[in-house]
Amino acid sequence: MFRTKEMRERQKRENGEAENERPAKRSLWQKIAHVVYKFLYTPCKEMVQTLCKKRSHNLRRLIVIQFCLYTLYLFSLEFGSLLYLYMLKVTCKT
User: Fold this and answer.
1) Is the dihedral of CA 10, 15, 20, 26 positive or negative?
2) Distance of CA 83 to the CA centre of its chain
3) How far does Cα 8 stand from its chain's mean position?
4) pLDDT tens digit at each of 94 positions of the chain
5) 3-state secondary structure 61-93
6) What whole-number distance in Å separates Cα of residue 19 and Cα of residue 37?
7) 64 with 52: CB under 8 angstroms?
8) Interior/surface letters 24-50, b for 16+ CB within 10 angstroms, e for the rest
9) Closest Cα partner for 50 from 40, 42, 60?
10) Are 19 and 12 in contact (CB under 8 A)?
11) What angle do CA 33, 38, 43 make, to 5 degrees?
């Protein structure tokens, strides 16, 4: 995702960072916790908020259907690639 200069400055203001200030050094566990929060917790929370938000004209149902379809598509895509990998290994052994 491309972020503009204004977006970066706004994020710094929200986080309470000065423009020339370097971020404080964090321990390994703090870094791991930050990554887990940023890449696992926040997207899941926002997904649930998106799915639960009240919308007009049954738009929420359409969003849930689209979410389910993409989930099934990704599952079948992974299954297909694993099956193909298995078939490659079987044919290479003979």
Assistant:
1) negative
2) 26
3) 20
4) 566 667 677 777 777 655 555 667 889 999 999 999 999 999 999 989 998 989 998 899 999 999 999 989 888 888 877 777 777 777 776 5
5) HHHHHHHHHHHHHHHHHHHHHHHHHHHHHHHHH
6) 24
7) no
8) eeeeeeeeeeeeeeeeeeeeeeeeeee
9) 60
10) yes
11) 130
Structure tokens, 10: 């706004």
* pLDDT score recorded for residue 23: 63
Both tokens of 8, joined, read 């970066």
Instruction: With CA atoms as reference, report the closest residue to 20 among 6, 31, 30, 9.
Output: 9
First and final C-alpha spacing in the chain = 46
